[in-house]
Amino acid sequence: MRSLKLSRNNLNGSIPFQIGNPVELQNVLDLSGNLLTGEISSQLGKLHVLEILNLSHNTLTGSIPSSLKEMLSLTSIDLSYNNLVGSLPENKAFQQETFVGNKGLCGKAPGLKPCNSSRVNNSEPKMKHKDIILISLPLLSAMFLLFLVIGITSILCRRTRSAEQERFERNKDLFSIWNWNGCISYDDIINAT
Q: Is 45 a member of any domain?
């Protein structure tokens, strides 16, 4: 058997490990556009003469088996639009841009983040010290400006209130009848008339 093309057949379940048994399969293995789940079988690494492997548009999970790096005749591999994580194996076929849609993959292929030895299996990157500073510095500056504006506004409001109160106190006796609080004595009324 030279090629096996089973794409867009609504196949479900995991990739059977027996698929790696026909070691003479040399041109194409295409299982794309199905409903395959689970991890990629490490038995695929036995297909040493396979040239094209397409497992795209499935819901495969886990990491890419290291046995695939031994497939030296592999010229094209498409693992896009799955849920794969981890780093790409070191193989010339893994240097193409056919891994999109896998948020957890890293490697030297175009469109992927480079792998960091401490982050190979983490899907969420850790925040660096520089990133924390870049986020906290603008926040602290904004808070400082907010407190500054509130402080200046408070001082200006107090000054305005005290100036109005002082002006009222100066003009208090100008029209004393308007400011009458009921405590004016009889003598004050006689003196006024």
A: yes
Token reading at 26: 């040399």
- Residues 134-145 have pLDDT tens digits of 888 999 999 999
pTM above 0.70, yes or no: no
31 and 81 inside one domain: yes
Domain boundary among 39, 73, 106: 106
- pLDDT tens for 138-171 read 999 999 999 999 999 999 888 888 777 776 665 5
HEC profile of the chain: CCEEECCCCCCEECCCHHHHCCCCCCCEEECCCCEEEECCCHHHHHCCCCCEEECCCCEEEECCCHHHHHCCCCCEEECCCCEEEEECCCCHHHHCCCCCCCCEEECCCCCCECCCCCCCCCCCCCCCHHHHHHHHHHHHHHHHHHHHHHHHHHHHHHHHHHHHHHHHHHCCCCCCCCCCCCCCCHHHHHHHC
In contact, 70 and 48? CB cutoff 8 Å: yes
What domain range includes position 133? 129-192
